Every structure is written in structure tokens, then in C-alpha cells.
């Protein structure tokens, strides 16, 4: 009987003729009913579709006929949000971003920091990770990887090794200055976030790796750390939770490459800051060979507020898969450069005009914008008119949100010279471990230096593009990609400008050649 039931079930699921399936199973067609059900449905005629629909209707059809009213229709789904931006003050996470209030413990507690932290910690790692996943928070350091998923990679059962949280405060991307504002004006948000994120990862301690040039930020963070220890918020029995959690601050030495997570771990261990091959990934073999997660300052700092206000509140901002609020750094040719917290998916034009006073000389004077720090491709004005500031929208136009450092260039900018300067930065900051990056970044810079004065041939533009492709994706870490993408963006959107410079120089040289011959004669 069981064989027959299994056979009829397979017949029902198969896309092949019934008889062919039965032959393959060694069961005769005459033995098998038309259904795989164990009840009397094999001998019961099928229910007419109309009756099925009646049974599934909301409310009882018979009752509806008695009182003469139709059953109520199901409620419509909530309308999808289509406009973004204009974040209200009560929805801002970083309420002391400009340093207008006391940054230390007394002022921080007035602003809601360290409120019911004990209760959040005692809810446990699985609850914290689940809430972060529900919120849709994605990493704020550039890659945009889902934070809850990343935190869940840490081992749940200890094999005897301690686990560590490592906070990447080595903010060195040109144009990016958001994390420094958190550390000097809202340091307790970061420290509380370390305790929350560390609990989620079952970590024993957190290491905050600060960029070497951030001297004042380190002093502010160290003062806040000492306050937290004295108040019993960190250390033994942190925040009264019964859990021990320590926070250490480590000063970097100014190397951009140490912003890469495994190079940062190498530097923390006292070695040269050179990226590691992966796998193994830090969640398995990280700091001192122990499970570790490296995450960004902003990502950690927003976690307590998300847990207190709920993941639904956070995910109500921005488009789907691009949830929350975000710190944007706006610099370059704007009237009021600033760092501002805004809703994800805000239109780029609105972001600049609402918070930075608009482009110098008006929006029509705009040439191009780098939307996410120096490592993402630039966008020309025609794209900037309508683009939204989130991961998916910028990816669709072959750029990226990155660190959300918006660098504005007006029409007075020599765009080739600007990208050549970025190429020099990446050449200088390459650790030299990978040949494509070590050699390729130098090639990019030297060719662009010639191209900005037109001292090149037209076919060298394609050669430059080919060099970027030989670097991109062929290195241990993403610094090679970061060096290649700005050059690719330049060629994609400003190739006519490169060609014009080359042709103009060639024309000038042809005009000067007869004069030189006459002078010799």
C-alpha cells in the first residue's frame, strides 16, 4: 500500500505521462488510483472550482445570503513609498553630529544613549541578530553587505577560542569624514554599539582601530571610554548585564590599505598592513587566529537605536533593500560643505540643494559628481539630475554608494586632472603585494598625466581601459578595484574630452613643425 501511495504521489508531481512514470516505478496502472491521498479522495469526485472559491471567500457565503450583504473585500496592500528625503529631527540617530551639545556621558544619556542597554543585552545574540536582519541594515563602510547576515557568520558554539569585534575607524577614503564626526561628537553611541554588536557576535572584547591622523577623535573617544568604565557600562558586568565586555582603542599609522579588513587585522597584530588571502575569512580565523568580525563605525553606532525603536521604524526609510538613514559627506564645489544624516534613496539633487546650499554657480554649472567616495566611478550632470542615493540606484548607473562621500565638481574642474590625482593617491597607497595593483596603478597615473596635456595617441585610451580591466578583480583586496573604477568612469563619460585634448595637441604640433623647418633652413 505504501508503495502505491508513493507512486501516485510521484505521478501527481511529474511532468511526464502517467503511464510512463508508473512503468519506471514498476507499478501497474490498474493498481494505482488517480490520487496519492490516504483518504477516500481516490473514489470521491473532485470538488468543482466554484465550490472551492466559495469556501475560500472571506466570511460565510450562507450567512451573506441570509442578510443580503456581500462579504467584505480583503484590505488593499499599503502603497509603496515613492518619495524620499526631508528626514525629520526626531528621526535622526546622530543628534549631536555638529557638536552643539555635551558629547560625553551626561549629555549622551540625556539624548537617550545607554537607555535600557541591560535589557537589550539580556535578550541575547539571536534576538539582536534577528532584529538587525529585519531592519535591513547594510554595512555603512562601502561594500553594503547585509549587517545582520554578516554578524550571524560568527560561530555560535565556542571551540575554546575567544571571539572579537573589530571596529574599522581607519577612515581614509578621500572625501569621507563621517566617522570622525561620530567619534568626536557622539562617542558613546559607538561605545554602546560595541557592547550591543559584541553581544550579537558572542565577542569578549572590541578593538577600535582609529586612523593615525585622527588625534582629537582618539582623545574624545578615550575620554568617553574611561567614563563608560567608571559608570560600569563597560568592563566586568557591563551595564549590569552579568556579561564582561572590554573595549580597546588602537592608533593606526596613516596607511590607507589598513582600511581593508584583513590588513587592519595584520596591523593590529603588529605586522605590516598587507591584506590576507581569503579564505579563511575573519569570522573563522581573524584577530590572533580567533573568530572576528570587522565592521564600520557608523554600522555599529546605529545598532542600539534600531533595537530601541524597532526594525520596522528603521526599514520605513528608503527603498526596499536600501533601508534606513545614512550619513552623507558633501564636499567640493558646493556653497555649504557638510556632513548630514538623511534618508536613504533621497535624490542626489535634493540632497545637495537642501543641505549644502546647492552647486556653486547653480545646478546648471555642474560638471560631474563622485557619489560615494574616491573609489567609485563619477557621474556626469545628465545622470545626476534624477539619480537617487542608494546602493541599487547607483549600481544601476555603473557607480556605487560606497561611503556616501559626495564630491561635487563644477565646470571649472579639469576632470582629467582630478582623476589623475586620484590615480596618484592609489599608486601611493598600494601595499605592493599584488603585481596588477603594484604595477598597474603606476601605469594608470603616468598615462593620465600625459593625457591631461594631450601627450598621447587615441589608441592609448583603449589601452588605458584595458589596463583597468587587468587590475580589476585580479588582486587580493579591493584596492585594485578602487584604483580602476574612477578611470573607467572617466573613459565612460568623458572620452570625448580625452580625444579632444589629444587631437588639439597633435594639431598644434603639426602647425609648429613647418616653422621649425624654416628656422633650421
From TrEMBL:
Q: What class of enzyme is it?
A: translocase
Topology of the protein relative to the lipid bilayer:
Peripheral membrane protein
User: Which EC number(s) does UniProt give?
Assistant: 7.1.1.2
Q: What is the reaction catalyzed?
A: a ubiquinone + NADH + 5 H(+)(in) = a ubiquinol + NAD(+) + 4 H(+)(out)
The keyword DNA repair belongs to this UniProt entry's keyword annotation: no
Q: Where in the sequence does UniProt note compositional bias of the Basic and acidic residues kind?
A: 52-68
**Protein's GO biological process:** mitochondrial electron transport, NADH to ubiquinone
A GO cellular component annotation here is: respiratory chain complex I
**What residue stretches are annotated with the NADH-ubiquinone oxidoreductase 51kDa subunit iron-sulphur binding domain?**
416-461
Q: Recall the GO molecular function terms of this protein's record.
A: 4 iron, 4 sulfur cluster binding; FMN binding; metal ion binding; NAD binding; NADH dehydrogenase (ubiquinone) activity
InterPro entries (alphabetical): ComplexI_51kDa_subunit, NADH-UbQ_OxRdtase_51kDa_CS, NADH-UbQ_OxRdtase_suF, Nuo51_FMN-bd, Nuo51_FMN-bd_sf, Nuop51_4Fe4S-bd, Nuop51_4Fe4S-bd_sf, SLBB_dom
**Entry keyword set:** 4Fe-4S, Electron transport, Flavoprotein, FMN, Iron, Iron-sulfur, Membrane, Metal-binding, Mitochondrion, Mitochondrion inner membrane, NAD, Respiratory chain, Transit peptide, Translocase, Transport, Ubiquinone
Q: Where is the composition biased (Polar residues)?
A: 32-42
Biased composition (Pro residues) is annotated at 70-80
- Gene3D superfamilies recorded: 3.10.20.600, NADH-ubiquinone oxidoreductase 51kDa subunit, NADH-ubiquinone oxidoreductase 51kDa subunit, iron-sulphur binding domain
User: Organism's domain of life?
Assistant: Eukaryota
Query: Where is it localised?
Result: Mitochondrion inner membrane
Q: Give the cofactors, semicolon-separated.
A: FMN; [4Fe-4S] cluster
Q: Which Pfam families match?
A: Complex1_51K, NADH_4Fe-4S, SLBB_2
Q: Which residues form a coiled coil?
A: none
**SMART domains tied to this protein:** NADH_4Fe-4S
Q: Which family does it belong to?
A: Belongs to the complex I 51 kDa subunit family.
- What function does the entry list? Core subunit of the mitochondrial membrane respiratory chain NADH dehydrogenase (Complex I) which catalyzes electron transfer from NADH through the respiratory chain, using ubiquinone as an electron acceptor. Essential for the catalytic activity and assembly of complex I.
* PANTHER family tied to this protein: NADH DEHYDROGENASE [UBIQUINONE] FLAVOPROTEIN 1, MITOCHONDRIAL, NADH-UBIQUINONE OXIDOREDUCTASE FLAVOPROTEIN 1 NDUFV1
The entry's protein name is NADH dehydrogenase [ubiquinone] flavoprotein 1, mitochondrial
